[in-house]
Amino acid sequence: MLKLTGKQKRFLRAEAHDMSPVFQIGKNDLTEEIVNEYVDALSKRELMKVQVLQNSSMTAKEAAAFIEEHSEITVVQVIGKVLVLYLPAEEEKYQRYSTNLQKAAEN
């Protein structure tokens, strides 16, 4: 898990503000396979939202803890039932946020 500064988290929260959730956590809750899907999705987008549905037995905080425990994903923010997830991309062509993250830390 990446340790982000307050400024970096603010930058990522601002970038994620207008995004819609890409995945939903429902009554089947989370498994390691699902978390691996998040890692695959983040390898191409770096930043995304996940929504915890009403019928899930997990709270958003429990989901955040499970994701961070079973992957390298950083949970940037939990607002209500929505998680903001970040994972720096390996491939340069997908590094839309990680390159700007360094600048955000320096400003």
UniProtKB/TrEMBL annotation:
Keyword RNA-binding: yes
SMART domains: CRS1_YhbY (SM01103)
Record GO terms (molecular function): RNA binding
Entry keyword RNA-binding: yes
TM annotation in the entry: none
Alphabetically ordered keywords of this record: RNA-binding
Record-given protein name: RNA-binding protein
Organism: Atopostipes suicloacalis DSM 15692
Taxonomic path: Bacteria, Bacillati, Bacillota, Bacilli, Lactobacillales
